[in-house]
Design a protein that fits this description.
Shape: elongated
Largest sheet: none
Radius of gyration: 25 Å
Structural class: mainly alpha
Distance between the termini: 69 Å
Strand content: under 5%
């Protein structure tokens, strides 16, 4: 029985992984950025938000302003 341990592919170094990614990057397609229109409030039906959650979201500037 041999005590020689051969590293598996999953044990590659971070530098090797970054190099592989850099070589593959030109082959990856970037999807075209699409813009989406906001949904009209009149089209949203059946959504129930508990009052405590509504207050939380209302207090968050990203959502309430």
């Amino acid at each position: 029985m041999s005590n020689n341990i051969v590293p598996s592919e999953s044990e590659m170094s971070l530098a090797e992984l970054r190099g592989d990614c850099a070589r593959m990057a030109p082959h990856w397609a970037v999807p075209a950025k699409t813009s989406t229109k906001p949904v009209e409030p009149s089209r949203i039906h059946g959504v129930t938000v508990p009052p405590s959650s509504a207050r939380l979201i209302d207090a968050m500037s990203d959502y309430g302003d």
